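seq:
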Amino acid sequence: MRYGAKLREAVRQDGTTPLIGVHDMHSASLAVRYYDGLFLSGFGLAASHYGLPDIGYIAWPDVVAFAQRLRGAFPRTHLLVDIDDGYVDTHVACHVVEQLEAAGASGVILEDQARPRRCGHVDGKKVLPLEEYLDKLDAVLATRRDLLVVARTDATERGEILRRAKALAATDADVILVDGVRDTDAIREIRSVIGDKPLLFNQIGGGKSPRLSLSELTELGVDVAIYSTPCLFAAQDAIDRALRDLRAADGRLPEPVPGGADVASCIALLDRRSEPLPV
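struct:
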C-alpha cells in the first residue's frame, strides 16, 4: 500500500485532517476507535519509553521499532512520524526515512532545530542556518519514494518565521509546519506566504499555540492538525488520580465503574486478531 499517497489524498480533501498523538500501543488502540490518523509523537515517546523530557534523548532505532509495531497493528491508519532533526546527521536522517518507509509509515516531520533540541512549545529553541537545514531537507526529499514529508521550522521571531516558511514552501516538501505559533494572526500570515502548499498546525496541552477546533482551523486554511499529547496527558491525570485514591483507600480496589475499563474490556480492546487485513 502507498501510505504516503493515501495521506496526501486525505490532506488534499476539504477540511482539516486530524492526526492523534500516541505514546504506546495501548494509547494507539484507543485512538483508532475515534480517528483514522495517528501521530508518533516525539514528546510522547520520550516520556513513555525513556521517562525523560523531549530534549533530544530519543534514538532513531526506537522510533523505527515503534512505527513498525503501530503499522503491524493498524494497517489501514495514517501514520505520521516525528523524527526531530533527523538525529543530527543528514546521512542518518536519510537512513531513518528509508527504514520508516519500509516499515509502512505515511510521513515524517523534519525540523530545523539545532542541538540541544527541545519541545517546540518551550523556550530556548535554536535553529540551524537556513541553508544547512535546506540541504538536509533536500537530501531527505531525494531519499523518500512515496513518504509524505513535513518541513518544520522552530523559528520564533516573526520575520524569520515568515522567511523560513516561504523558503520551505519553495521546496518539494509536501506540508509546512511552524511549531509554537502564538495566535491566529500568525497562522494567517504563514498561510499567506506559503501559497497553496498545505499547512500543518500542532496543538499540545499547555503549549504556546491557541486551542482551536477543526472548523476554526479549516477557516484559517490549515490542512492538517496534529494533537501531540492528548493520550499522554489524559493517562497521566487518570493514573495519578487512581493511585491517589488507592492509597487513600488503604489499598482496596474501587468498585468497577459501569462501562469502565476492566480485564475483559482491556483484552477486547487489544485483541485485533479478528480484524481483516486490507486488500
